[in-house]
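Methods — Computational structure assignment.
A single polypeptide chain was analysed. Its primary sequence is given first, followed by the predicted tertiary structure written as structure tokens.
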Amino acid sequence: SSGINAEYGAGSQLHCFVIKLILEEVVMVVQTNDVLAVEGPKTCNVDDSPRETLTIEDAVDRVVDKVTVKFVLILTTACLTIVNTSSGTYLTVFTGYIPYNEWKCVSEKCSDLEALAGSSNDFYSYDTMCFNDLVAGSDFEWTTKKRTFSMDWGFYCKNEAKLSVMTSILFLGTFLGLMCSTGLYERVGRKKGSMIGSFVCLAAVAISAVATNYFVHLVLRIIYGFGLSITYMGTYCWVVELAPTYLRNPISNFFALAGWSTGLFMLIGISYFIHQWQYIYVAVACMDAIAILPFFFLPLPGSPRFSLLKGRMQEAKETLQFLAKMSASKVSLEKVDLVYEEKDQSYIEQVKDFKAHPTMLKETLLGMVAWFIVAVISYSYQFGWSKIGNDLHSIYIFAAVGEGISFVIAVPCCRLLGRKKATLFLFVLVIVMNAFATIDVKFNDDWSLEHFVGMIGSIGAGAAFVMMYLYSGELAPTSHRGMILCLCSSCARVGSFIGPYVNLLYGVTDRRVPLALFAGLALMACVVVWFLPDTTGRSVPETPGDVEILSGRKKQREDEDGEACQVVVNRLNGCEPKYKNEDNEK
């Protein structure tokens, strides 16, 4: 103040006074901060940190930052709720089995044929029974301890097609369930939708145990397929939405391995110890009832995506906090707002986009053909083992092991060879194994070269089926993926329906004919996949426009638009952006 008075005079006394007040205020603030640093604040702090907005995928990735035993147990329990799907699919294989090599003659006509055949081991066979029009009860009697509905209802030789109808009619129900499942999931959610499907399966198989009419069984088989599709797809979506993105592919394979393979092994064990087909249905009904119990007695969380879709953000956060607890994560979601981007287009509008985007149409059509072919081959294998082997249970145990192996090897093949090359390799494996199966080499009365190479071929077909799920999901843009996978899966259901009928060729033609048919179908699948682009190392397209850019059909514009388009191409192809100088790179 004295310095200012000396330089500017007494007129500056007012300025000096103001400066003095400011300095005193600064000193008071500094002293207050010193006290706060030592003693702490005297008043409550207000948390004014900004809120964060996350999608469901980002939120799940954040709360499930590591895999723990508890988290794996939760997913495993959810996966085991679909054991009724595989047991129901293969139920008629064991309850309708026709033992063409287990019977004895009771008529003079049959005895004369046996005397002419001498001591030939091939007398008790399909050819002897069917080509000579032998009638059960009049010309021969079944000697097996097991009793199937095919034996009770006369489904053998010319009537064997009825067994194929009962087996394949299931896939009509799965097709109907696939069409209705989306609306059900949107109304009640994935978890409750799976519960409804499980109850439908339980009711259908329980009533089948006491139904004695063929046409009633057909209706119940359709109903079972309807519930099966809802259970399987609902549980799959439910489990995948609970898993973080970095576990999606392993979880998909584990889902099939834990649920599908377990159910098949349980069915094989049940049919081995239970000889009456009605009691097998009762045992499967009990297994279905047990599969429903985890929904009620275990703390299985619902889908957070469905909760958010219905506007229940707090419920979605509670589910996420439960997942965080199971994975030992301390992440808090109090300052997080969850968002969900709804589809702007309806199903019909998405289908109309095929006209404006021909590349997406071409890839979808090729994918539908590939799905149809791989479904025909896979289900022909799975329902045809009884045609190439006499020991039903042992050969299906090996088939179940092979099916489990096919779920496991899909991911390593994909990582080593890439999407396209892995799929081609698996189809070529099917071709080669069916070619080897045509060679007549018998090891004993029950096993031949056809058995072993057939199992390897079934592993290749099953792994190719798994690969088509992954491959089609990466070809389809995010905005249309659900619709495209629905179309492909529908084609697979048609192939699944046709597959069991292919095995009827074993009774009317040489055994090499169906084997050649499988090899030809696999070759056709190779041609189809050859014209599909490889998605290895490439980002998943978000829109149909991205698909056109990747194919090169959508040309770059000049100047700014061309540069922006090139950035999109680099991103989709997995390329790092190239910077012009160091400042831009920084």
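Note: The chain has a mean pLDDT of 77.
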